Amino acid sequence: MKPKVTMVQRMLLVALVLLVDLVIFFFPLTAVFLAYIILFNPSWFRDFLDRIDQPDSA
Description:
Blueprint: H1 7-25, H2 29-40, H3 43-53
């Protein structure tokens, strides 16, 4: 005898598939990177900002 899949289980499966699809294909990498910069304020980013702030001596 086959186990019967209920409509609730089907809806949960569909929601899970859509959620996984959103995470994989529409993951906001720029927003995550910006959040990392704001939270941790890494020294390499501060150095980058200091370099682009310097006037060009050429």
